[in-house]
Design brief:
With 143 residues, the protein is α+β, with helices and mostly antiparallel strands. The chain folds into 2 domains: 4-87, Winged helix-like DNA-binding domain superfamily/Winged helix DNA-binding domain (Arc Repressor Mutant, subunit A); 95-137, Ferric-uptake regulator, C-terminal dimerisarion domain (Dna Ligase, domain 1, 2-Layer Sandwich). It is built from 5 helices and 6 strands. The strands form 2 sheets. Strands 1-3-2 form a 3-stranded antiparallel sheet. The protein has a 3-stranded mixed sheet with strand order 5-4-6, with no helix packed on it. A hairpin with a 7-residue loop joins strand 2 and strand 3 (84-87). The protein starts with a helix and ends in a 6-residue tail after the last strand. Bound molecules: zinc ion (ZN) (2 copies). One zinc ion binds at residues 99, 101-102, 104, 139, 141-142. One zinc ion (ZN) binds next to loops.
């Protein structure tokens, strides 16, 4: 089940934008948060359409953009590959190793690297708010 916080953040944002909250929006939100991570619009659309044939691709795409705008999702554009989306709420911080061949995202988290990044910011008298570390390469299946 989706935490109420997520729904409220989205609903409030929709209202702020002067948009209407619709049943479809809520379905997209639910589907996105329960889908596999780092998903493309196409895949998410296909899974929603299977249950809800009336839904359009543009609607799914538009709502993913809204989710990014209100901070509930992250958009990752890797070169010429299709943009991937991942839910951001209640997630542990992680970084990505991204395969340039198959487009797979591997989630990684290393305390030492995290601390080094903080240190780097501190050395530059900088207060870090967030960061993104992406390493591009070839995964073990594509080698
Ligand atoms: Zn690969
Ligand atoms: Zn991720």
């Amino acid at each position: 089940m989706l935490p109420n916080d997520v729904k409220n953040i989205f609903r409030n944002y929709i209202r702020e934008k002067g948009l209407r909250n619709t049943r479809q929006r809520e379905e997209i939100l639910d589907a996105f948060f329960s889908a596999e991570k780092h998903i493309t619009v196409e895949k998410l659309f296909a899974s929603i359409k299977a249950k809800n044939p009336g839904i359009g691709y543009a609607t799914v795409h538009r709502n993913l953009t809204l989710l990014c705008e209100c901070g509930l999702a992250d958009e990752m554009k890797i070169g010429r590959q299709k943009t991937r989306y991942e839910p951001k709420f209640g997630q542990k911080h992680h970084d990505h190793l991204i395969c340039l061949k198959c487009g797979r995202f591997i989630e990684v988290n290393d305390n030492k690297i995290e601390k080094l990044q903080d240190k780097l910011a501190e050395l530059n008298d900088f207060i870090p708010v967030r960061h993104k570390l992406e390493i591009y390469g070839i995964c073990k299946d594509c080698k």
